[in-house]
Amino acid sequence: MPLPTARGEVSGALLDALVREPGGVTLPGGWSLRAADPYGDDAQLALYVCYELHYQGFSGVDDAWEWDPDLLRARQVLERRFLDALRSEATAHDDPQAAVAGLLVEPADGAGVSHHLRDEGELWQMREYIAHRSLYQLKEADPHVWVVPRLRGRAKAAMAAVEYDEFGAGRGERVHAELFAELMTDLALDPTYNHYLNATSARMLAVVNMMSLLGLHRALRGALVGHFATVEITSSPASDRLAKALRRLGAGEAAVFFYTEHVEADAVHEQVVRHGVIDGLLTREPALAADVAFGVDATVLLEDRFAEEVLGAWRKGRSALRVPL
Q1: What is the pLDDT of residue 266?
Q2: Cross-referenced InterPro entries, in alphabetical order (predicted)?
Q3: How far apart are CA 234 and CA 165, in angstroms?
């Protein structure tokens, strides 16, 4: 895909640099990096672009930028500010069991995005939600693969088993990212990888960036496990609500299938992650318990903020995207 449109001084300087040859190019630094809001559009877009160099990259950008030392130093400043903000604002538990326990009970009066879409959402709102989620879903499970070499024994085996399912269990047409692309096509959305990057809010960028941040750093392996557990535990009931929403809105079978597939699969994955990955990791490395809990708390914080933004916009009758569909 082409490079996105800048959202401020930091992302602008980064995007200007990436169209040139690596080495000797002025990158954002100093005051501008430290002054950028760690949750804001400018910093989050800059982080997303840096991370995307480890995934599919951008057309016209030299692959050598992926490991350019100056770019990695600039990224490190943004990462530290983002991580510090998350640790300060998200941390609510130091015990993984207590953190996970809050995810296992479905509130009777749930008011999240999937509840809204199931009960009263309109088709244009569903399409916007899918456009937002496409930034992750079109590379579903890719950020989590990086943790596999950092795990051992039971935790590694359990994590690999879940990832095997995410990647289609050996069948290319069942890769979850491919199924999501079919869902998008069914809803008359463009399934091109990162097509909606310019339209997506900073709050969704933060959700996806946190996955890459935790996955790319071995020191954060415990937090990545906590994050992944949160995704798997909350996915099955939310997927059930979204499947019902899509049926109510008259979507085709390809759209409905993506979520019905996740209802059953993620109910199984929840057990594997809790008892295989988390327990397996903490048996070998009990000192990572607080990091696992942090991964849960940080995921909940960012997802709640994204939901608040989206529902707030919809209640006012306006688009939740920066660029309406």
Answers
A1: 65
A2: Haem_Oase-like_multi-hlx
A3: 17
